[in-house]
Structures are given as C-alpha cells and as structure tokens.
Design goal:
Residues 284-296 have a biased composition (Basic and acidic residues). The chain is 58% helix and 7% strand. It is an alpha/beta fold. It folds into three domains: 11-165, 3-Layer(aba) Sandwich (Rossmann fold), CATH 3.40.50; 171-208; 229-380, no CATH class. Helix 4 packs parallel to helix 5 and helix 14 runs antiparallel to helix 15 (368-378).
C-alpha cells in the first residue's frame, strides 16, 4: 500500500505529483481542481505525505507505512494542517490563523504544508488575506488549495499556483478500489460505484450502508409516481426529510463524541453543574455543531437532488438512443416506459429545474422545503 492508492484512475495526476515529490517541478503553491468525488483532497493529502515521507530514497517517497506517512494520512502530523469548513464559508479570522501557521518553520518535517480543502468557500476579502502569504511564502512552506474548478478561486490566487486537474475516475476503477481496499463484494461494489456516479466517498457509503442504498432508490423512484400537485408537495416533503435524517444520523454520534472529548479535556465533573468557564466552552462547541448541522443538511439535500437528477439523466440517455450506460440499470424497464411519455426537451427542462433548486439551496438563504416544492411542481408529468 502507498499513499497513491486512493487515486485509482488518475495516472496522469499521480505521475505529476510523484515527480514533484522527487524535487522535479516542485513549487510553493498548488491548486487541485475537479468535480465532487474526483479526489481533490485525497490527492493533496497523498502529495503532502510523499513530500514529508521518511524514506531517504526519493523514488519511493509516499510509502504509506512510515510514521510520517501514517500521521499525515491520519491528519495528526504537527507540520501538516488540514483546513475544511463545516460552515457556509471560511471566515477571515480563520484565514488569518492560517497565515500565522504558515509563517512557522516546520518542527520536524521537510515542509510545513497547509491544505485548504474548501478554497472555493472563501469570500474575496478572505482570499486576499492569503494572497501575500502565497505571493511571498515562508521558506519550507507549501500551500495546497482545493476547489471544484479554477474559476472558483480568485485569478490573483490561481495565477500563483501550479494546477493539478482531476477528473472523475471510471466506475470500474472505483469498484476495484472498494473491492481491494474495503473488501466489498464485487457485484455490490460495481452497483455502488455506478449509483454514486464514480464519487468514491459516496460509493463507499452506499457499499457499506444498506439503509443508504434504500434511501437512494426511494429518491430515484419518486418521479414514477409524480402526478398532480399533491404528489409534488408530498415528494418535496419526503426529499427534505430523507436529507435531514441522513445528515442527522451522521452528526449525532460525532457531536456526542466531540462533547465527551471536550469535557474530558477540561476535566469536567461527572455530575453536577459545570463551572461558568467550562459552560462557555461547551456552549461554543454546541453553537459550532449547530452551524455544522445546517451545512450538513444542505450538503445532504444537494446529494439527494443529485440522485434524483440521475433518474432524468437516464431518461435522456434512453430518449437519445442509449449511447452510454445508465446509472440506474435496475430501473431500466420503468425508465424506458417513462421516456416514452415526453421528449428530450421536456427532460432537459426538468433537469434544469433540479439544478436550479440545487443552486438556490446551496447559495442562498431560501428555505429548502420551499425550493424543493417549487422544483417538484415543475416535474409533474
């Protein structure tokens, strides 16, 4: 096993990063771009591990087994910082903390590395805080920014970064990764990779969680019974509930573990009232968790609508002559029957309605249920 194993299906990217880790073409700032599920953050993490790998032989750096590789992959290395936000944006205060961290020389590794996984979630004013640090970097510091596309980062930033462009790997490569690394049954791995549309993280969740597979199938089947405004309102309510339940189930255990860890760190008494100083820190944690819950529900609803979009994508493929493989192969007969009721122009209009709802939910303060109800009304047969 090496640090590059998670980048299955990205041979050009692996070659570029391995060459840089050996000192050829290494620069102080990198911009990793690609669609969700392409492995932007995994590529940055693998690159960080290869740069600080304990191996003396540059040709085998990124071994995946030395202490440096293991701690970086586990995100516990003292000289490698991973920055991701579970709020709507990265704040200017967080950006200033990054700049301060980047100014410190590495304590034990070759490089101090700052990995910003949500570079597209910074406002222009916040990004400008990073500009000088990236323009005039501290010696032995490397910045790695991740975003869906170069256009999501200010031109003044991306012009100072070396680009690493990733693509979604083929579903067969994702399935092979699930089989080889996670021990998933090959048939289930193939089904999960296809349903996830090659998004590695979602494919792993679908392969491991039968309830997640059932929720997705329920979502994809919704259009089959969408007749009349009552059905549209009911569908919207159910879609929002599915997304909320999925987000809540993944947050509850994490929230409880975080609170228990904080109380243990503070030395809180097992019973009785907490001292005021401790109560304020617990309150801050709870406020952060509430903000994260809102973001996770938004992200979960976006994934749910992406699953719904795959239904109409398959309908369009059938209407255009089955030129490529369907995502929802198990529903082929129902999809073919549905495709006969309209033409490609109607299907494209429905896909636009879903994408518009996704945009409104993720970029505005509109109530999710209202956005989904409006979308559902436009999908009525």
């Amino acid at each position: 096993m090496t640090v590059w194993d998670d980048l299955q299906g990205q041979p050009a990217v692996v070659a570029q990063l391995r060459q840089a880790s050996m000192g050829e073409g290494l620069t102080h700032a990198w911009l990793f771009t690609g669609p969700p599920g392409s492995g932007r953050s995994n590529a940055a993490k693998a690159f960080a591990a290869a740069l600080n790998c304990d191996q003396d032989d540059v040709t085998v750096r990124g071994c995946g087994t030395c202490p440096a590789c293991l701690t970086i992959l586990g995100e516990t290395h003292a000289d490698v910082s991973f920055v991701r936000t579970e709020k709507v944006t990265i704040t200017i205060e967080e950006a200033r903390e990054l700049v301060a961290t980047a100014g410190n020389r590495p304590s034990s590794a070759r490089w101090r590395i700052i990995v910003v996984e949500d570079a597209d979630r910074m406002a222009e004013r916040t990004t400008n805080v990073l500009l000088k640090a990236i323009e005039e970097p501290t010696p032995r510091t490397i910045w790695m920014l991740c975003a869906p596309s170069p256009a999501d980062v200010l031109v003044t930033i991306r012009s100072r970064c070396r680009a690493v462009a990733l693509r979604l790997p083929p579903a067969a490569d994702v399935a092979a990764l699930l089989v080889n690394r996670d021990g998933v049954d090959p048939a289930l791995a193939e089904r999960a990779a296809r349903a996830a549309q090659s998004h590695v993280g979602i494919a792993r969740r679908l392969a491991r969680d039968a309830e997640a597979r059932e929720r997705r199938l329920e979502t994809v089947r919704f259009p089959l019974g969408l007749r009349g405004i009552t059905a549209a309102v009911m569908m919207a309510d159910k879609l929002v509930k599915i997304a909320t339940e999925e987000a809540t189930s993944s947050n509850e255990e994490r929230d409880a573990a975080e609170k228990a860890a904080l109380l243990a760190t503070l030395g809180a008494p097992e019973t009785g009232t907490l001292p005021p100083a401790m109560r304020s820190q617990v309150k801050q944690l709870e406020d952060d968790q509430k903000r994260r819950a809102k973001r996770s529900i938004t992200d979960s609803l976006d994934r749910t609508l992406t699953d719904l979009l795959s239904f109409y994508r398959d309908v369009l493929i059938i209407q255009l002559g089955n030129a490529v493989e369907l995502v929802n192969v198990e529903l082929r007969s129902e999809l073919e029957e549905f495709a006969q009721r309209s033409g490609p122009d109607v299907t494209l209009a429905r896909m636009d309605a879903i994408n518009n709802a996704r945009k409104r939910i993720t970029t505005t303060n509109v109530a999710p249920l209202l956005a989904v109800e409006s979308m559902a009304a436009s999908l009525i047969q």
